[in-house]
Amino acid sequence: MESAPDRHPRDRLRRELSLTDATLLVVASVIGSGIFLTPGAIAERIPDPGWILLVWLVGGLLSLAGALANAELGAMFPHAGGDYVYLREAFHPGAGFVMGWISFLAIFTGTVATLAAGFADSIAAFVPLGDGGRLGVAIGITVAASALNYVGVRSSARFNNATSAIKIAVLVAFGVLAWVAGEGSVSHFGMRPPGEGPSLTGFGLALSPVLFSYLGWNATVYVASEILEPRRNVPRSLFLGLALCIAVYLVVNLAYLYAIPVSEMRGTENVGEEAARALFGDRSGTLLALFVLASILGTLNATILVGPRIAYAMALDGRFFGGVDRVHEVHGTPHVAIVVQGIVAVAILLVLRTFPSILDFTTFAIVLATMADTAALYALRWRQPERERPYRALGYPIVPAFYLVANAAIAGVLLHGNPRESGICLLVMASGVPFYLWFSRRERGRGAHP
């Protein structure tokens, strides 16, 4: 069987992202607000230092297991669109469409909304804002970041590279200086609220914010048609980027636990800021709070760069709204898809408004999408065994099977523990079915994409 072409025949995006660009795109996509804003929620669900470190490690290993599958799929199909393409090829165009629909409308636009809400919450620590003010800031930063991506991929990649390098340097320095010059205590690692212990349900619920904090580990598969030598660089960028993120997250969480006991973490909106104050004084807490703002902006920029490629890929097949497949003649960006993503993200902000609700909504969608990707890996191994595979998933078939089972369990816990947010996600997914039928009927009428 012939290998898949490097891109869709109608794809006009420029191939200009190097391995460094792609790796740091993963870092920029992953390390944003999560490492600062989610530890308080995690400590409420599993009030034990050892289990907190374990849940961050498990979340990283689960993401790595997903990266193994995505590396094989991305090297096979180095196209724009990621999981939309994989499910289309593995099962049916309808399966690809529904997954692309939920990825675009829930995962990426939901992440944009989550980051924007987190940014507004962080701004409120410096400037008094009511609910309306926070909403206005969140919408404003979404529009501004979308405008930046509208005018160029190269400039956006440079911004990602710079912010990612700064993130790694600052967070590693924070983790090291906490032990060298900080005012923490190793006794915090043996403390937990009396009479309270971790449970498997609590551990599963704690994985929701952790998996959100790792969201973005597969960023490069969505922009594969813009990466130089994608069959080699897509897998490498996934593994290098994710390895950096896991290491940074563990270093930072060790510093948090050294700085303040778990009882003080519980319910704290910005644990990073509180830990910095405890370690180095009030001024350092303010400086870290400013760094959080910059970090969120970097991740918001990376997410807005990646997400529109899904809608763009669907439109290339005639299975999305007209004009979304357009590429700007001057800037070389999928500008219409960027605008559509911005509009949907603002709509999510208007409906869900708060950071925790948007986070759980987005995480449930992530779990479903990554399970579908892994199922596509099995289907393609069975249906297309002779297709060229520049990279083969390490640990197949055992590791992907473990990943499927673990994510199914997490999905069940999220559905039980957060029925409203999970239900909205399922409704968004179901809403894709009539749209797929409509788009397919329209294309059949034009004599294309039967």
What is the alpha-carbon Rg in Å? 21 Å
What is the CATH superfamily classification? Amino acid/polyamine transporter I
The name of the CATH architecture is: Up-down Bundle
Helix proportion of residues, in percent? over 70%
Instruction: State the major sheet.
Output: none
Tell me, briefly, the overall form. Answer: globular
Strand proportion, as a percent range, falls in under 5%
The CATH C-level name is Mainly Alpha
Structural class: mainly alpha
| Mean pLDDT over all positions | 88
Quickly count the domains: 1
Tally of DSSP β-strands: 0
H and E string: HHHHHHHHHHHHHHHHHHH
| Straight-line distance between termini | 22 Å
Helical region count?
Answer: 19
Give the low-confidence spans. none
Summarize, please.
The chain is an all-alpha fold and 450 residues long. The protein has helices spanning 19-30, 34-37, 39-45, 49-76, 83-90, 93-123, 131-150, 153-181, 200-214, 219-222, 230-259, 262-265, 271-280, 282-306, 308-316, 335-352, 355-383, 398-417, 419-446. It has one domain (22-446): Amino acid/polyamine transporter I (Up-down Bundle), CATH 1.20.1740.
Describe what this molecule looks like in 3D.
The chain has one domain (22-446): Amino acid/polyamine transporter I. The chain has helices at 19-30, 34-37, 39-45, 49-76, 83-90, 93-123, 131-150, 153-181, 200-214, 219-222, 230-259, 262-265, 271-280, 282-306, 308-316, 335-352, 355-383, 398-417, 419-446. Helices cover 74% and strands 0% of the residues. The longest helix has 31 residues, at 93-123. With 450 residues, the protein is an all-alpha fold.
